[in-house]
Specification:
The chain has 515 residues and is α+β, with helices and mostly antiparallel strands. The protein has helices spanning 6-16, 60-66, 114-126, 161-164, 175-180, 234-242, 257-260, 291-299, 303-311, 341-350, 367-381, 394-402, 421-429, 444-452, 459-475, and strands spanning 21-23, 37-42, 71-73, 80-82, 85-92, 95-100, 139-146, 149-154, 196-202, 206-211, 225-230, 248-249, 266-271, 276-281, 315-317, 358-363, 386-391, 410-415, 479-485, 487-492, 495-496, 512-513. The model is unreliable at 1-28 (pLDDT under 50).
Length: 515
């Protein structure tokens, strides 16, 4: 099995999770027990319940309940560990052998085997409807080499694959369901092999799943089901937990921490994550087709003030797509864009950009998103940039910017992180990646550096490659990162066993409900 070096693990543990805390009061946890329905407040309607076709990072909170992945990750470190693939091994730099767990079935009763894995991986990497083709660009062929064994032949060495297969690319969908589905997608009729099976989806209101009684993990899951209410207004969602209507809310805004901790029945978990608020840029069209305008945008943002005003200090200013705690963070790259509105004005003038010309950004209509927009509008105004936001719900706004419409010059949203940083960079900063809004070219040396970051298992070699990747991304100003938000989850005292994770996307592996 591929193993992460001890040095990498220790770097992740000591840095990233040093501040993870359980706030407020202590609640005793007894022996786990089955039963009950876990009621969750979610901030956004999913874009799709088909892992290959969705376009929003917020989808994971739903997908993880219904789909198991070929590999999983440790909550503390994001180190890959066995999942539906019980082991794996690189037999040479361009051959990865996956040994598939026996005795697993999909929710429709069909067998999960090597053929099912091949079907999914081929679909994910080549289907025209797949939004995750970039995840598997290194794969040249997928071969069934035994009833429970799949061998991936690679175009180039790719040591990031075990981590990548813990994300959407490794989520296994029933081939039978896909073949029978209209249009070959299971957007609204998901069939996976996860801990819970799909029951219903009332669009924009509620998603319900029930316990998979034939789940392969012993004594899991513990609740009878999960009921996820879509409540975009997070203040309302928080009230639903303090009032007992829901049991748990995730992605709670920092301003709610002090308020919600006043409720004696509620406990709060918080800790650092890879979740970064940022402005995605379409560098294929004006004005961001000019590097000086992109650089000016980065100089115009006062990230320290943004963290204090928008996130109540429960965040880290972001100068790249990795936080300080991450093993691949580069302190020199972080110095590229100190707050300097005068430098921003100078660059805009050099670019021939007329001061006050409006730039249209996409955004979201919830209270916290609007507050972030207002802060940025004022900061950018001081540098001569007239920012205007056109808001729509998360799924719609994301599709408008990243999809065929290519609406707006930028999108104020968030990147929710990926288990391996090479996936973050390849998904946003390669030419045909879905999250490259304009599908515009990037420097050849950047794509080469991303490949280099996946060519070795040695952590120091990878770190060096990532330094090049991050420098090229930020020197070219392909994105305007703002802040890494801490995970903030509030739950009532009935909820036991919840653990935060560095990815910042909730999983309910060991959650159970007390009395």
């Amino acid at each position: 099995m591929m193993m992460t070096t001890r040095r990498e693990v220790m770097a992740l543990i000591s840095g990233a999770l040093a501040t993870t805390t359980l706030g407020g009061r202590a609640f005793a946890e007894g022996a786990p027990k089955k039963g009950g329905t876990l009621r969750i407040s979610a901030p956004a309607n999913p874009s799709s319940l088909d892992p290959a076709t969705g376009g929003a990072g917020s989808d994971h909170a739903f997908l993880f309940t219904m789909y198991d992945t070929l590999t999983e990750w440790e909550f503390d470190t994001l180190k890959p560990k066995p999942g539906l693939a019980e082991s794996w091994k690189f037999t040479d730099p361009t051959t990865l052998v996956l040994n598939i767990r026996a005795g697993v079935t999909f929710h429709d009763g069909t067998p999960f085997d090597a053929e099912a894995v091949k079907f999914n991986l081929e679909r994910n990497r080549s289907d025209a409807k797949s939004n995750i083709k970039a995840d598997l660009l290194s794969v040249a062929a997928v071969e069934v080499t035994g009833p429970q064994q799949v061998t991936l032949k690679l175009k180039t060495p790719d040591t990031a694959l075990p981590g990548i297969l813990s994300d959407r690319a490794g989520m296994m969908v029933s081939p039978t369901a896909l073949k029978a589905a209209e249009g070959g997608v299971v957007t609204r009729k998901p069939v996976g092999a996860g801990a819970y099976s799909f029951v219903s989806w009332a669009d924009g209101e509620k998603i319900m799943v029930k316990r998979n009684e034939k789940y392969w993990k012993p004594e899991r899951p513990l609740p009878d089901g999960i009921e996820i209410s879509i409540i975009p207004e997070l203040t309302t969602g928080a009230r639903s937990v303090t009032a007992g209507q829901n049991d748990l809310i995730y992605q709670l805004p920092p301003r709610q921490k002090v308020i919600i901790e006043r409720a004696s029945s509620v406990k709060v978990v918080h800790g650092p994550t890879l979740y970064v608020f940022q402005i995605f840029l379409n560098w294929a069209k004006p004005p961001f087709d000019n590097i000086k305008v992109r650089q000016a945008l980065n100089f115009a943002i006062d990230r320290e003030s943004f963290v204090k005003a928008a996130l109540a200090g429960l965040a880290e200013p972001a100068y790249m797509n990795l936080p300080r705690a991450h093993w691949a963070y580069d302190a020199e790259v972080a110095k590229l864009y100190p707050y300097d509105p005068d430098k921003a004005r100078k660059l805009l003038a050099e670019a021939g950009f007329k001061e006050g010309t409006p730039i249209e950004f996409g955004g979201y209509p919830d209270q916290d998103s609007v507050q972030r927009q207002e802060i940025l509008i004022e900061q950018l105004r001081k540098a001569g940039i007239n920012a205007r936001f056109v808001n729509a719900p998360v799924a719609e706004a994301s599709a408008a910017f990243f999809g065929p419409e290519k609406k707006g010059a930028g999108l104020l949203s968030a990147w929710t992180g990926r288990p391996d940083p090479s996936l973050t960079y390849s998904l946003m900063f390669t030419k045909d990646a879905y999250y490259n809004g304009g599908r515009a070219p990037v420097p050849a040396e950047l794509e080469a550096a991303i490949k280099e970051s996946r060519a070795s298992e040695d952590i120091d070699t990878r770190r060096k490659a990532f330094s090049t990747v991050q420098r090229l991304v930020m020197e070219n100003a392909f994105v305007a990162p703002l802040a890494f938000q801490f995970e903030l989850v509030a739950m009532n005292k009935k909820v036991q066993g919840y653990r935060p994770n560095l990815l910042g996307k909730p999983k309910y592996d060991d959650v159970w409900l007390g009395s």
